[in-house]
Design brief:
binds ligand 2BA; 22% helix; 2 helices; four-stranded antiparallel sheet; 109 residues
Length: 109
Amino acid sequence: MKMVAAIVQDLDVGNLLDALTQAGHRATRISSTGGFLRRGNSTVLIAAEAKQVEEVIRIIKDTCRQRAELLSQVSPALLPLGPTELPPPMEVPVGGATIFMWEVEQFLY
Ligand code: 2BA
């Protein structure tokens, strides 16, 4: 058995959980926060038999897409500047999904 942990955007997590449960997989959503943007995202844990992992990955890829987030580059040192002098926000690509996988040693109910 494998544990798949997928970090996804909150905009995609509803569709991902729907698709996983409709396909018979079990999943747990944990609210999380990205270390770089400090914005909310979701970590979805899916424990699946090894032969089901390919389908789980396909469902994640089908339901989670990449988007651009705007990152404001304003540092406290620039705050005296007027709005027209401030650097423009930087576009950062986020998602579709960051996926980690590892072997499950034991699965107990
Ligand atoms: P964040 O850490 O908020 O990162 C959001 C996006 O910012 C990343 O998208 C990436 O495009 C960019 N980014 C992150 N760190 C950067 C840096 N040091 N310099 C420049 N750009 C940077 P994704 O790669 O799609 O990651 C989305 C979320 O997945 C991350 O949110 C984080 O919560 C998680 N994640 C990604 N890689 C991870 C890793 N190696 N370990 C743990 N969590 C990870």
